[in-house]
Hints:
six-stranded antiparallel beta sheet, single chain, mainly beta, 1 helix, two-stranded antiparallel sheet
Amino acid sequence: MISLYGNSISIKVQVEKRSNDEYILKFKQIADQKDWIDNSLQITEYEISKDKIIENFFIKNDGKVELHWVGLYNMKKQKIDFADKNFSLIRENEVKNPILLEKC
């Protein structure tokens, strides 16, 4: 599960292994979406492609994970949603993509 906008929107994803160190994620369904979230940020599940890659990540030799966020492809709008600062991890990473994750 991935949290997109704080704790306001959570989605379930499908993880596919591409190689020993590379994985891709695809949208599966909305897990939770708060009623009070701004209408411009709400996701309509049937409008989001389940075939497009929303993220890929690489496990580095040093154990760190390099996460490349793409966003959710909205078929109705024919554009990518949640591609930048609307995705919590990118917003918290000073709007930098890819994100390097390390164990604490």
